[in-house]
Design brief:
alpha/beta; eight-stranded mixed β-sheet; 8 strands; 42% helix; globular
Length: 284
Amino acid sequence: MAAIHYRTADVDGFNIFYREAGRPGAPKLLLLHGYPSSGHMFRDLIPLLAERFHIVAPDLPGFGQSDMPSRDTFAYTFDNLADVIDRFTTTVGFDRFALYVFDYGAPTGFRIASRHPERITGIVSQNGNAYLEGLSDAWNPIQAYWQDPTPENRSVLRDMLKPETTRWQYVHGVADESLVSPDGIALDNHYLARPGADESQLDLFGDYRTNVALYPTFQAYFREHKPPFLAIWGKHDPFFLPAGAEAYKRDMPDAVVRLLDTGHFALETHAAEIAEAIIDQFGR
């Protein structure tokens, strides 16, 4: 089994923790996690792909083991997450690479791809949305906060930071909950419980509206550049509907869409199937 190295990169004074595996010189693959997780979510996927790819999986700013600066010194916006990860890729020598994006990793990665289309060799979107029809009604409380950012509407969103909500995100739509390791859930809740994490995460909930506003920009990138694309989706995701996966074919007719019988955190139950699909499309 390929070794996984645990490293930290200095990105203009910002410490970004990342996992790295595979042979330098192999096709590069950047893995971008979502809310409320970290690169730990890729723990089962990385060994399955490391023989074919040079893999790097950073923790986004404010997540996992990466720096979580005060909101006084760092604005928690998706533009800023993308700026830091964009610089991270050059710091670690990822000049051309494929993207695996999940949840928050999608608007982060799609910003980078739109800025630097020449650097992107392909995209895997695992429950990473870029179309309005992919948004479920679970977004209604967050959208209410976008439209009226009052303290009351912000306070409603604190329910999404509760430990029981994290567990629900992991197990909703999973046929056999015993297949979902409690360790990832516990780790995510540990990070959410850090002082200040609640406010930074609420800031990102509010800023998610900028991602929706950029959907036309992301879609224009897909239409113009048509990167090799795999949309692989837990079809019982309570946040991002299967229609969001199918919509990619509107702008990229050659995109491959696969729906899996699981929920939002599809890697918890279907890592082997996802790895096989990636190798079939990008690694042979």
